[in-house]
Each structure stands twice: as structure tokens, then as C-alpha cells.
Design a protein that fits this description.
single chain, 296 residues, mainly alpha, Serine Threonine Protein Phosphatase 5, Tetratricopeptide repeat, 2 domains
């Protein structure tokens, strides 16, 4: 996989860190309700001390009832591991899923594994964990958005299932775009955190959909989606991949001035795309001076 796309894939993990575990709090609060109804004693819900951790996952799904105290304790031990301790948390998550294949906590475990595999650059395992997550929690918009963005960035046209992979990415991105505005703010999140989480999710989903359209030659549609992705993204550090793709799509549709703007924005970010985007901006300027620009 080209280093440009690998860097773009890793950039998605930065957004995922904010969006990594609120489904945990939801599962644990649901556990409390089940415990009071059944009269069984279960461990208290873990207190979230990191506001970002409490504000991490957006989902419409209700987890299954608790299974047993041993499982609850095992999940609490897993959940207490920071996402920054990637290899250890990956191993613990894989072990938990293997030992408790029917656990009510599988969705948050798989959701965290999605971010961890993404950070490790293991896209096949990321996709496998993501698809297991949405099989359990089909309205987990963050996992949908990460899948929708990462699959087309890691895409290879020579793979036998290449077109099916783009079909999946399109479906995941569209689902995230449709569902994100319907999510109710979790009590643990502030309004600002909630807005940031939603916009990060939408930026990934629109960016992923834009790349699917770009790869299929639907350049006007690609421009629309990529412009939306860059406008809604709340991250202070921009995603250069979306601006690079937007520059390419604008250039190919003869929107040369817009291409210069997009490439120039991409070139402000240090990294493997910086030189390419500087060259793209210069090329678009030359094309704009010698060719007729298409109306926007």
C-alpha cells in the first residue's frame, strides 16, 4: 500500500481516539438496570476519569443483559487499559472475545479493536473487527465511518473482490451519514464533545464516500462529498488526504482555481503528501492559465 494512503489511514485513528468508548458506559448503565430487576449482585459501573473516553462512541443500539460477574470483571480489566497501550490491549481484546463469544460487551471490545488495529496499520484485522462490531451494533456510526473511510484508502484494484470492497465502503459511509444526525447525546458527553464527535464521524464518512466516487470515476460526486468532509471536520489539524483527493477531483473536472486551493491546503501539512500537493497546485495554476475552466 502506498505510504500516502497509509498515512491517511493512520490519521483516522486520531479521530477514533475521541470516539472510542462511550458505548462502554452505556453497556454498564444498562447492566445496572438489569441487576436491579433481577436482584443479582454485579460489580458497579466503572467510573470514567477521562472525558474523552466517556465521550467516545455513538450508537443507537442497546446491549444484551449481563452474563456473569467473572465476565464483568474481565471486561472492566480490559476497559481500564489505555488505548495508547496498543499491543497489550489488542491481545486482551482478542482473548476476551475468544473466551466470551456471546458477551454483552463484544460491541465495545470490537469497537476499540477497530481503532487499535487501525493505529497498528493492520487494515484486514481492522475491517474484520469492524464488521463483527456492526453485526452486533449495526448503528455504531463511528465504526461505520471508519470502515467507510479506511476501506477505499487501502483499496487495491487488483484484488479479486475489489469492487465488492468499494460497495461495502459506500454502504458503510452512507449509513454513517444517515444515522449520525439521529443519535441522542449520551449523558456523559458535553454538548461540545457531542458536536465534535458527530462532525468527526461525518467527516470520515463523507471523505470515504468521496473516495469511493473518485475511484469509480464519479468526479462531480466526489467533489461534493470531499468538500463536505473538509468543511465539517472539526480537527485543528486537517486531513491532507481529503484535500489531496479534492485537488485531484477538481483538477480532473477543470475546476483549476479550486484545485489550487485544495492542493495548497494539503501542502500545509508536513508529510509524504506535502511535495505532491505543492506540485499539484503549480500544475493546476498552469492548466488554469492555458485551459478553459469549467463553471462551478
Amino acid at each position: 500500500m502506498n505510504v500516502k494512503w497509509r498515512n491517511g489511514i493512520k490519521a483516522g485513528f486520531l479521530a477514533g481516539l475521541l470516539l472510542a468508548g462511550c458505548v462502554v458506559a452505556k453497556a454498564q448503565s444498562s447492566q445496572g438496570g438489569q441487576s436491579s430487576q433481577s436482584g443479582q449482585s454485579t460489580p458497579p459501573a466503572q467510573q470514567q476519569t477521562d472525558k474523552d473516553k466517556a465521550a467516545n462512541s455513538l450508537t443507537l443500539d442497546t446491549p444484551a443483559p449481563p452474563v456473569n460477574p467473572e465476565e464483568d470483571a474481565a471486561f472492566k480489566a480490559y476497559d481500564s487499559m489505555p488505548l495508547t497501550d496498543g499491543p497489550k490491549k489488542i491481545a486482551a481484546g482478542e482473548a476476551f472475545a475468544l473466551k466470551y463469544p456471546q458477551s454483552r460487551y463484544l460491541a465495545p471490545v470490537y469497537s476499540a479493536l477497530v481503532k487499535l488495529y487501525l493505529a497498528a496499520g493492520d487494515v484486514p484485522k481492522m475491517q474484520d473487527a469492524g464488521e463483527k462490531d456492526i453485526a452486533i451494533a449495526p448503528n455504531d456510526v463511528q465504526t461505520l465511518a471508519i470502515l467507510g473511510q479506511t476501506i477505499p484508502r487501502a483499496w487495491n484494484s487488483n484484488l479479486p473482490n475489489a469492487q465488492a470492497q468499494l460497495d461495502k465502503a459506500e454502504k458503510y459511509s452512507k449509513s454513517a451519514i444517515e444515522l449520525t444526525p439521529t443519535i441522542t447525546k449520551p449523558p456523559a458527553m458535553t454538548d461540545a464533545q457531542f458536536d465534535t464527535a458527530k462532525n468527526q464521524t461525518l467527516a470520515m464518512a463523507h471523505g470515504g464516500l468521496g473516495l469511493v466516487y473518485f475511484r469509480r470515476g464519479k468526479l462531480d460526486d466526489a467533489v461534493t462529498e470531499l468538500e463536505t468532509a473538509t468543511k465539517v471536520d472539526p480537527n485543528p489539524e486537517i486531513d491532507p488526504v481529503n484535500y489531496y483527493l479534492l485537488g485531484l477531483a477538481d483538477q480532473k473536472t477543470s475546476h483549476f482555481d479550486a484545485a489550487v486551493v485544495a492542493f495548497t491546503k494539503c501542502a500545509t501539512v508536513a508529510g509524504s503528501l506535502q511535495g505532491t500537493c505543492k506540485n499539484g497546485a503549480e500544475e493546476s495554476k498552469k492548466l488554469g492559465a492555458t485551459q478553459l475552466s469549467a463553471p462551478k
